[in-house]
Specification:
mainly beta, 86 residues, elongated, three-stranded antiparallel beta sheet
Length: 86
């Protein structure tokens, strides 16, 4: 069963795009071998954060990597405000 969770990033200043990698099979016991080379796969995607958190549905029987990149160096809150109003 999939599990939806909220990832709270606190005060971490991050980019709004998150790189996601999910390693999953159909069951917890799946593994790759010569007969079933794709029983467990890696799927890559991107997600978008909203404010200081991300809501994500973690698939059953999986391991998920959420890679949050730091905000660009030198960007300040006032720069972001100016950019968003431009």
């Amino acid at each position: 069963m999939a599990s939806q969770s909220r990832v709270d990033l606190g005060s971490f200043q991050h980019a709004t795009t998150v790189d996601v990698s999910v390693v999953a099979g159909r069951t917890y016991h799946d593994f790759n071998d010569a007969e079933h080379p794709d029983a467990v796969t890696i799927k890559k995607s991107r997600a978008t954060t909203h404010g200081t958190s991300l809501t994500w549905t973690f698939p059953a029987h999986s391991v998920t990597l959420l890679q949050f990149s730091p905000e660009k160096a030198g960007a300040t809150s006032s720069d972001k405000k100016r950019t968003s109003h431009a």
